[in-house]
What does this fold into?
Amino acid sequence: MIAPARSPAPLVIHREDYRPPRFVVDAVDLDIQLDPELTQVRARLHLRRQSEADDQPLRLCGEGLALLEIRQDGQTLPKDQYRLEEGALLLLHPPRDFVLETLVQIRPIANTALSGLYFANGHFITQCEAEGFRRITYYLDRPDVLARFGVTLHAEQGPHPVLLANGNRIAAGQEAHGRHWVRWEDPFPKPCYLFALVAGDLGCVRDHFRTASGREVALEIYVEAHHLDACAQAMDALQRAMAWDERVYGREYDLDRYMIVATDTFNMGAMENKGLNIFNSKYVLARPETATDTDYQGIESVIAHEYFHNWTGNRVTLRDWFQLSLKEGLTVFRDQEFSADENSRGVQRIGDVRRLRAAQFPEDAGPLAHPVRPDAYIEINNFYTATVYEKGAEVVRMIHTVLGAAAFRQGMDLYFARHDGQAVTIEDFLAAMEGATGRDLAAFRLWYSQAGTPVVHAAGRYDPAQRRYSLTLRQEAAPTPGQPEKRPLPIPVRMALFSPAGQAMPLRGQEEDGAGDRERILMLDTAEQTWIFTEVSEPPIPSLLRGFSAPVRLEMGFGDAQRAFLASHDDDPFNRWEAMQGLALQALLAAIDQSHGAGVLPELLHGALAAVLSDAQMDPAYRAELLTLPSEDYVGEQMAVIDVEGIHCAREALRRAMGSAFGEQWAADYESLAFPYSRDGVSSGRRRLRNLALAYLLASDASYLDRTRQQYRQADNMTDHLAAFSLLVHQPDADVSDILADFYQRWQQHPLVIDKWFAIQASAPRPDTLAKAQALLQHPAFDWRTPNRVRALLGSLGANATVFHAADGSGYAFLAAQIRHLDELNPQIAARLATPLSRWQRYDAQRQGLMRQALEDLAGKANLSRDLGEVLEKSLKLA
Ligand code: B3K
Ligand code: ZN
It folds into this structure.
């Protein structure tokens, strides 16, 4: 009997419908005979009913399982005692307390969705979050059922000498037919989404960590043997993350062993399974010759993120999937803070906000907008979004801002003390924050339930006679799907006032909390509020939303003079950068508006850039941030109708103008920043600035093509090599076929580098890119079953503004055709790839029609997955 894998009618799950589990699982014992073609899973569940009166059937989730045996307390269960349904096994008359034993068969090799147990590149891997465990065995697959797991793995020893699962390795032995077994037991009760197993031929890099209380923890990173030399950054980041969580949150690791496995075949970045993290190899493997500085940074933050989940996610877990941000938003906040402490706080914050604006703001303004805590979903995998992760982190950050670091820590301590070992809600988190600090966070709850990005309008007025400055802040927010009315949110606005001479002024006035303070947090919690500052001797220039203290759009009603002032005087690194971005943005918008090419640099922008370029004292990474133009997407976000070509032309023209206006400085930077390769932050900042200089030089002076080719050939590290490669491949009309062939030839044994080769070609703003992408689908190295490769080609194409949004709709039709194919193999990735099409409302009428057409064509597909179906339905709803 095979239960069908997919349910036909989309079922909407509502948060309000939550009910506690009627049965609990005291213990799970799994015995798994691994075989790529037919794996058998024997499960013994100790089940216990929660209420005497309950005589309803027990429903266990299961998808794509062939049930071979079923026993209740050792006796084969008669057929009239159970029923197989769509996605479930129903026990019709379950006793109060019993052992259910099932034996099911699955086919890991046919699992292309990469959810549950799959077999790829010779390894068995699991991915159970969110609902993959039901593709392994019948179970109460929900995060609020916590059980102790023991698992015995059996496999052929030759190809699978390493057998891993959560917890402690208890025993191992040999079997007939060249097979062997290993027994693992996890002492910590956990929801099944944290279950994991890995089997394969893997080498191991070992190190250790001594916890604050003196326990030795074995650290093990499992990779294919030829990658054993590429794990140093991951191991180092893990040790630093462990020390940081002890130092900042007093959290120690709790098992004797922490394992990380790297695989090339993985749907997302990584997974925090208890004691056995499974990682996309992109976030583990790095050598200077194959990984860029950005890759190194990504490894540090993802390693830390998964490690931090051990407390925020695993020890304290989720009551239901609506609470996803309870672990994800909080853990992103923690990993951002870790990276800020380990590197440059200012640069980290700029990067975090850049990501938020690039992914979350558009999501919040489109048909897929949802609150940080959603109210309903069809497919939970569609809710691992920038809103749940990044906006969720911003909400935690605001709470941290208003409470202060020390009180926040007390709140976290109480949260862990109260809820260790429990499955809880966002409400429980807020209650702990309130309980420990005596503060009322009632208003903050709205941030979790109300979708959409608020706009804050600021207006200041200086009264020289009274020597008063009044600042009025007003908030508003546009409707989002299902939420036509928006209520005012509590918005902490960190601010300072600068004197015309560029000094932060003392802040005195009604809300005096420590006279003489030069920075203050104003809490805007009504639709409009005015603050009066007294004894203000000169007309001030306000610096608002410092450090980006709330995830809002700020409209300051500023002119370029104020922006230029802050660009040179603001001592808040974020706001200084923001002022520079504002100057550049205005230049671009004006050029697009007058459809001229931004061929001349506006005077104030010129002055601000000149000042940054001549400041040799400034941290090179920060300098690079200040000198980087806003992305095309960000410029588009500021327009009522996104003018794809206009934005591209204006930005290219501005880059050329910046290149030629400062040719000498860029050339001087390019020469003086050449240092032998080293892996530290200062060196990577220098590389970043140097490659930016090269980009400007090349934009304005074609003779730099040779220099770029030279850098491509001579670089001793992937950052410089790839920067040159990307510049060459993105040249609008250069013939770079020799470079493309050379790069492939050099790196074909390195999948992560070949991903870059695909991605850079698919993101080239060139007229032949679509034809190229079409051809790359047939390339021997393209593989539909490897998400990294699919994202490299198709994800990059969907993000390539001029090519994807080609006026004839060819980009839309191309992507839709590929999504149609991919949906048969991997619905999660297919649904992700479709999100650029969901933004159709932002374009002109013709593009709108073409994008909707592509969505409708897809919606008519037979066997549409739940994942893709939900994205399409929501995207088309507004039509
Ligand atoms: N918790 C996982 C994400 C699981 C995604 C499931 N579709 C990784 C993370 O956020 O740490
Ligand atoms: Zn996470």
About this structure: Residues 573-593 form the longest helix (21 residues). DSSP finds 27 helices and 32 strands in the chain.
